[in-house]
Amino acid sequence: MSESRAAIRYAKALLALANEQQQAEAIQKDMKFIVNTIAEHNELAMVLKNAVVKGEEKKEILHKVFTTIQPLSKSLFNLLTDNKRIDILETVAAKYSQLFDIQTGKETATVTTAVPMTNEMEIKVLAKVKELTSKSVELHNVIDETILGGFILRVGDKQYNASIASKLNKLKRGFTLN
Q1: Alpha helices in 67-163 (DSSP H)
Q2: pTM of the prediction?
Q3: What CATH code would you report for 2-102?
Q4: Which of 27, 29, 28, 49 is nearest to 38 (CA)?
Q5: Domain residue spans of the chain
Q6: Which helix (H) or strand (E) holds 111?
């Protein structure tokens, strides 16, 4: 839990500094890039969490991996290394993205489907999103074959379940109660 609180503090400080320097959007792109890269490369995540690898080595690795990011984003590596918190880099980057989205009125909607979304399904989902929120929404599709068909939409703390599995469960409960 303390890791999350620390990550939020670093993310808030970075967002404040990025706003001050009018680089918030560029830093947002960097933070998404950092999160995606660490998530896709398990070896990098393991190095960052490894207590045996020295902080300076971790910082060098990060500077070599992330050559194209903004200097302000690179300074986050230095700060986290100096404070012996480089292991929470991915969490800080994710929290920054969340805070940036809140600041700009954006929200991420997670759409769980049994198969990849078609254009027609995306139109239906976007129509449902407009019912649930007035914010601009970025759709993120997750594939889960266990829902059988339809979709489950999660926007913030709201969820709309239009999956076949959910409808079958309701029907099953109806039969068992009678």
Answers
A1: 71-82, 89-104, 119-132
A2: 0.69
A3: 1.10.520.20
A4: 49
A5: 2-102, 106-177
A6: strand 106-113
